[in-house]
Amino acid sequence: MTAPTQQTPADEQTKRSALIVATISSFVTPFMGSSINIALPAIQQDLQIDAVLLSWLATAYLLTAAVCLVPFGRLADIHGRKKMYMAGISIFTLGSLLSGLSVNSTMLLLTRIFSGVGSAMIFGTGIAILSSVFPPDERGRVFGITVAAVYAGLSLGPFAGGLLTQHLGWRSIFLVNVPIGFSVIPLILLKLKGEWADARGEKFDLVGSLIYGPSVIGIVYGMTIMPEALGFWLLGAGLLGLTVFATWESRQEHPVFQTRLFSSNRTFAFSNLAALIHYASTFGVTFLLSLYLQYLKGLTPQAAGTVLVAQPVMMALFSPLAGKLSDRIEPRIVASLGMAITALSLAALTIVDGSTALWYIIAVLSILGFGYALFSSPNMNAIMGSVERRYYGIASGSVGTMRLFGQMISMSITTLIFTLLIGRVQITPEYYPVFQTCVKSALTTFSILCGIGVIASLARGRIRK
Prior knowledge:
3 domains, disordered N terminus, 80% helix, Growth Hormone, Chain: A, mainly alpha
């Protein structure tokens, strides 16, 4: 039976509280994710962690979030999205506290996994709560605000992380999240009225979840170690597992993930595909240009970071506007235009070399950020607007899953190109020409991939009759 509050329009206080809560959490998780990279050398030195284990501090967090996103989205639909969100922000806050207090590498790794569980609960329900509270003609605007918060977190993370690590130590990066988390919890309890559980009473598909988890681990971890043979084996096993998962889900009355959404809902399927392609063609750009600016242009890390901030700043500035625009104009049009601008910007970056002026790079990155902003929130608006209320948690989880898979694909493409062209060598001046070839090859691949994504974006159809 559906709770009355699920059908009653939310009052302005509930809307405002939901937006504040979603915006804060949308900022905190990417902020910590981007800031921790700056602190890795300090963590390695303090806890005497080897390079392999050090890389797992980020990988374990991402893997945990990837495995848990879809199941927690479904549990939120059944038991209550606010309840799941509350549990997520509490776990994430506690995990941050324990990470900051870690006495050895094992404790830090386990607490990162714990934080990944909380992060999955947050991202598996945050967008679903906004979709439950705000009517369709207001969602694009609020999605744009939360997307802007994500980009603000990504932008400020490296800068603030560097300051915190230098002056207060690496533990401060984790501990700074604790007061933020504690400020959100009472807001949820006191101001966020009602509960949203549009699938209340339906069964949770535990078997499907147990098939899904190892399959995602195989795919995500396989991508991180490609082109090693084990990476291809794990990727193949993961894809086979997802095939088994899809077959199982299609036969369940109450599946953990509605695979029929992909076969019967054109807008949902192509919007998710567009998101996957967009993240796959853009996530590796910052990595590539960071190396390019420091090696070929001779910039310091701080100067390189200042140049690269042009992209996320544009994202943060224009995402709310793009979201609001998609409330009035068909999201397919806005998102497809954004992806087309992104593809052209990636193509414009393929000509850079050691003599390219910095103003050109900043200008192209700014246009790239604008295109990214035009795509992201309208695409999310299309995904959430294409499903029934009882699937909001599943849809919210799918958005996070596409983002994570896309990021992994992007880095896998980059790693594969580097391995094939330059091999496992340090990038010294003698290797700069072949390094430049690697950068151009990766950016060309991303540009072509993004161009294909425009077709997927346009193919989604209309969500407004």
